[in-house]
Amino acid sequence: MRIAVFPGSFDPLTKGHEEIVRKAVPLFDKIYVAIGENANKKYCFPIEKRLQWIRQAFADESKVEVVVYEGLTIDFCRKVGARFILRGLRNSMDFQYEKDIAEANRHLAPEVETIFLLSSPELAHVSSSLVRELYHHQGNYSEYVSFELK
């Protein structure tokens, strides 16, 4: 089976995240949308809400499973038998950051390959940080997420 892990905090899930997963569905037999949980990080939205939103977004995709994990992404990949890490790229800054992580992961687990998919131009500016900023300042975030943030 071709199993991929799409890791992130998804705080919150954006339409950009959704697009990457939907582009990847035909490529894999199973995709874990894996919410990384870091006890030292402060999140804007509780894990229960993030799980709910992601499950809602992919309710129509039988190949997508939403999970929470702790620790290294590479260890989670090994645990679920994933040979691929899925990452989205919006711009060249994303590429450099993601490339460095992919190289570290390759060193730790040469059997796991990172796959990069490009965001469409109309979603390239969308980030969870942007959505959180709009949310905190009562701005209109509706074009960046598929659900109401509450």
Kindly describe this structure.
The chain is α/β, with parallel strands linked by helices and 150 residues long. Helices cover 37% and strands 21% of the residues. It has five helices and five strands, in the order E-H-E-H-E-H-E-H-E-H. It has helices at residues 15-24, 47-57, 73-80, 92-108, 128-136; strands spanning 3-8, 30-36, 64-69, 84-89, 113-118. The protein has a five-stranded parallel β-sheet, sandwiched between helices. It is globular, with a radius of gyration of 15 Å.
Write the topology of this structure.
Blueprint: E1 3-8, H1 15-24, E2 30-36, H2 47-57, E3 64-69, H3 73-80, E4 84-89, H4 92-108, E5 113-118, H5 128-136
Parallel strand pairs: 1-2, 1-4, 2-3, 4-5
